[in-house]
Amino acid sequence: MDRFLITGGAPLKGTVRIAGAKNATLPIMAASLLCPGTCEIHEVPDLRDVRVMCEILKLMGAKVEAGKGYCRIDAASVAACEVPENLMREMRSSIFIMGALLGRLGKVKVSYPGGCAIGPRPIDLHLKGLSALGAKITEKHGYVLAEGPALRGSDVHLDFPSVGATENIMMAAVKAQGVTVIRNAAKEPEVVDLQNFLNKMGAKIRGAGTDTIKIEGVSDLYPTSHSVIPDRIEAGTFMLAAAMTQGDVHLENVIAEHTEPVAAKLRETGAEVVSSGEGIYVTARRRLQAVDIKTLPYPGYPTDMQPQTMAMLSVAEGTSVAIENIFVNRFKHVDELRRMGAQINIEGRAAVIRGVERLSGACVEASDLRAGVALVLAGLVADGQTVLENVYHIDRGYEALEEKLRRLGAQVQRLKESR
Ligand code: UD1
């Protein structure tokens, strides 16, 4: 497995272009199965998760052509409705296939996703929503079978505004008979992007971005093309990297409103964050101040930025508290940050971070995507060299991370696995 060799110390300077959002691309790719024609998706990031989704779509019978920044999905002859277990394990987001295939074929079988590095990831809310639409759910031998040849619109109240459950229910409801209302729906920008894509296909959805989404079932959907929104988590990661290295970075292809939860927190640390028509500028001229964060559903502070933020606060002046409210076990990066000299104590859902002047390079391991990139950020402000193992986690969600960082002046090298 590839490793990163990072030599810390350089302030990041220059311009970086943010890629299309992974978390918008994956459900939109799955949603293209709903339409018996060819959809074209642009601003598709080149990521391992996207390649896995391409494989899944092909196995379902779609023809997929993927090029630089786009993919074309011809779902005319989709017939298979079972996702192999190895692909479900490879990528948890393959769960999106459920709503799309149920809507298209009236039947879908997936293996039950188990726990993962950031804690248990149940799908009870997805299943409750799908069964409210009339799907019959059978759970046996680690598989979930959902059958609903004639779904009917219904009222669904989510106990928690789950992003994946909201998206799955939207996809299943698009062709159901009658009106579906999802209450306490997730308000994340990626849900809005999915709504926009589905409406371009002929769906009738309103309300995404608020906590109530209304879907009026339609009988036919048509091919369309769509450009995916910029990745607010990739943007947030570069914003933090700029600030903590006391750099000066211009981010292109960003939607400032989507990054505002991170921008507001960065301003509290003393960094300058300015957005203009051309993007976002992040500058820090001195050591950042400690701040507290609390992860919450959008527009709260994103859980997907929590590990990177802890890396940043590890070198801030003063003591910070980070509270993780979304995933129960999302502190796997802490032991690795400690190896680099960070002073962090965990108490339940809270982490207390006592900022140190500098971290020190060490050999560390990525346990998941965001934990991995947090260690890259730590490496950028560490004395000496950091070797980061298991970079494949980062490849799931960051396009050419080391190249983008190098163009900003960082010293990051990929060491290819020698066979
Ligand atoms: C999505 C994002 C992920 C992000 C997360 C929270 C994608 C592909 N992934 O994941 O990057 O970290 O939103 O912003 O978009 N839950 C249940 N039952 C369910 C579903 C969820 O209890 O049926 C719980 C989860 O365990 C978790 C919380 O709800 O504690 C939030 O999960 P959810 O919003 O569903 O996250 P994902 O859609 O999996």
Question: In words, what does this structure look like?
Answer:
This protein folds into two domains: 3-19 and 230-415, Alpha-beta prism (UDP-n-acetylglucosamine1-carboxyvinyl-transferase, Chain), CATH 3.65.10; 22-227, UDP-n-acetylglucosamine1-carboxyvinyl-transferase, Chain (Alpha-beta prism). Helix content is 32%, strand content 26%. The chain has 14 helices and 25 strands. A four-stranded mixed beta sheet has the order 22-24-1-25. It has a four-stranded mixed beta sheet with strand order 2-14-16-15. Strands 4-5-3-13 form a four-stranded mixed beta sheet, with helices on one face. Strand 19 and strand 20 (350-354) form a beta hairpin. The radius of gyration is 21 Å and the shape is elongated. It binds uridine-diphosphate-N-acetylglucosamine. Uridine-diphosphate-N-acetylglucosamine binds next to helix 1, helix 5 and helix 6.
